[in-house]
């Protein structure tokens, strides 16, 4: 008695080797988008769907539009900020010193040093 698949070379969940002759793919249309970096992207949509005005460029991530002569501008990207930079925007140095002193007092109290 042999072990393995009943049909040699197939696996569970695999699709048929050739497309089914009884089915037809849904009608589609290709829409071309242009980004400011010069990339051209052809995106497929259903024939009855209206394409969006902008689409994220698959190559650079910038917005791409339908008008090749006037693509949308680049997004303004903010430089990376650390957590400390955001905290310093919200609090003054005096506030930070006061918060630090309160935290140190709590630590000293827990350790029994105060």
Automatic annotation (TrEMBL):
Physiological role: Binds to RNA polymerase (RNAP), stimulating transcription from principal, but not alternative sigma factor promoters.
Assembly and binders: Forms a complex with the RNAP catalytic core and with free principal sigma factors.
GO molecular function: bacterial-type RNA polymerase core enzyme binding; zinc ion binding
HAMAP family per UniProt: RbpA
Protein name listed in UniProt: RNA polymerase-binding protein RbpA
Basic and acidic residues biased stretches: 18-29
The entry's keywords: Metal-binding, Transcription, Transcription regulation, Zinc
Gene: rbpA
Binding-site residues, Zn(2+): 35, 39, 57, 60
Family: Belongs to the RNA polymerase-binding protein RbpA family.
Metal-binding as UniProt keyword: yes
Signal sequence, renumbered to the chain: none
UniProt-listed GO biological process terms: positive regulation of DNA-templated transcription
Region feature Disordered, mapped onto this chain: 1-29
Record-linked InterPro entries: RbpA_sf (IPR038638), RNApol-bd_RbpA (IPR025182)
Cofactor(s) listed: Zn(2+)
